[in-house]
Specification:
344 residues; alpha/beta; Rossmann fold; Zinc Finger, Delta Prime, domain 3; 2 domains; five-stranded parallel β-sheet; 16 helices; 54% helix; 8% strand; binds zinc ion
Length: 344
Amino acid sequence: MKEIFPKIIGNEELCARLARSLLSENPDLPHAYIIEGAYGTGKRTLAIELAKALVCENRTNPDAPALPCGECRNCRNISRGACPDLIEIGTDGKASVGVDAIRELRRDVHIYPNDLERKIYIINDAHTMTVQAQNALLLTLEEPPAYAFILLLCENSALMLETIKSRAPIIRMKPLSPEDTERAMLTADPSLELKKRTDPSLFDDVIMSADGSAGLAIDLLSGKEAAKITECRRATEKFCELAANTAKKAQLLIHVTDVCTSDRENAKEQLSSFSMAIRDLVLIKRDQDAPLRFYSDRERALELSDSMSLRRLLTISDALLEAITSLERNMNTRLTLISMISKF
Ligand SMILES: [Zn+2]
């Protein structure tokens, strides 16, 4: 059985769906797709692999081990960034993809491909396209040359005009599971293996904080945010442990005011982290296999969840959300925290 999109981690359903059209003699793909997903979820990797699959010399070869094969001339040229018929555009360091870049694309699209049978365009950060740029692109999407294939990578398709969306179906990248996030990180940068070995708990912390984005996890691991994340997560673990024990309300108040009063933004972040952890405890109470966003240690989450009633967890969860809203309305941080704990 042929391996499908071997370089794409997670998103199996999506890959299988794309492969069904690609494996046929005449792939019945539309001329454009919007690939939507949060920062760092692998949109560009999918775009590159999709481009390879479309022009792979072994696309319909039943004996090829994978689609794309990764070994033919076309696959290798794309991997090396040496394919003249794969054109990438983006913001070029500016805040948005402007109309000039799209006008250039519109001129270029009418020039026949050099080397391949297709000409493939990847528009990075397509959600930043100005309305003018989107309208200019629309003209190409309405009547593209038969060989053109356009991939719009975007973090939020709500920012795209309806007219664009009606001509470019949306492929949605799913957030990765913690295991897949780790796999994607190590695939993207094998040197991270060393970091994982030297500080496994930090590695774990950034994966859980990145919420399914391997790119974000890599950024977090290399930036100065890493120490802050660890601190925030340890404070959250302690919060849940104290909250699980009704006799420790006084200590809980001291802990919460201690970690939340430095500044308002920090307090909101810390409360959001508490809220995410409590949400995990609610979910795991209902379903032992529920996907968790805070706890990487499922056993510990189960144990804590068992020690609290569902009613209590929901009360805490509501009080946390209420406190976050109060802080957003610029209420006094200390008073907000005291009032929150009194509801637990
Ligand atoms: Zn190939």
